[in-house]
Amino acid sequence: MFKKFEEYQIYLNPNQLLQLPLYDLAEAIVRHFNLVATSNAYIQFYLDFVLEYSQKQGTSLSGFLEHANQKKDTISIVSPQGQNAVQIMTIHKSKGLEFPIVIFPYADLDIYREIEPKEWFPLQPENFNGFSNTLLHYTKDFEHYGDIGKRIYNRHQAALELDNINLLYVALTRPIEQLFIISKSNVSSKELENPKTYAGLFINFLKQQQGGQESQSTYAFGNVLKTSQEKASSKELVEHHEFISTSKESHDIKIVTNSGYLWNSEQEKAIEKGNLIHNIMSHIKTKEDIVFAITHFQDRAIINLKQADALQKTILQIVEHDQLKPYFTSENTIYNERDIISKNKAIVRPDRMVVNSNNEVVIIDYKTGSESKKHQQQIENYQTIIEEMPYKVINKILVYINEDIRVISI
To answer: For position 337, which CATH number holds?
Structure first.
């Protein structure tokens, strides 16, 4: 596929692209494909969408693609107020708003149409094992279920009429100056309108206005001249600026890390390294997440390139350790740094919980420094709280991260 792109002078290196943070990846694709020469609302909105996700939910590419797929039918560009544009919305959403001009298309709603309606029907408890009501599919046959059925039918039909007439009222009262209604000629072979639809109501109205004559398909009432004053802001021209997107490498920018992570002393280096590994490991579920997690911390200037290389080597030693490797696969459900509330309302947070399909749990906790009984007591407390839920702890592992990696099963 990438070779095929080169025929169109589009040169992409997939390995380099996948090393980029999520937002930089999206911008790089925009640049390489020459998608825009000037500012484009759709491209800019998509980049904003990517940026918002990366800031709030992380930089996982697969996670973003899943998120975008879930949101694709609901997200849309927001047009600023005062722009010369058309807003498309439902009648319900327009309630309480007003507009200079409203176009009401598809104005032929069936007033009595419902999707799988239901109604409760009373029963004699002694004949139905104590049940006083049953839920039935609502149809016009309710009218023939005796006096009770007829009352339910009349009440239901009246409620439909009220709801849909109110809906029609909302649609017809939104415009300030002009209203355009697009309906259809819904009449029977006997030239009688159907009173069960909006179209029938409009036709009935037009017949009254025309003295019973119906000989045209377009009707106009009132004055089409504009009456309101145009706001000054809406007269301003919209300037389309050049779309500027350049990689940070081309600017030769050097990022300085946070002062707290500069590792100026051996003691500080050990403490901060332990904290960093804890934080990075909370972003890693499988080996494939390591590069993205390291890059995420680099992009936020928490670590520099030299520190990233050292941390990546240490994390690879953890993930590829013979005793730990089985717990970094996608076959299990992984919970990193997840709060758990016990029955006595105490909150604990194991570093890593690995749950298999049989609800069997392996607890992993990362430690720095020398071994301590407190660490063992802590992980045993995790086990007690976890087993209050429908889980069985089958292994507890302490991982001591110092000059080397030491793994202890409890």
So the answer is: 3.90.320.10
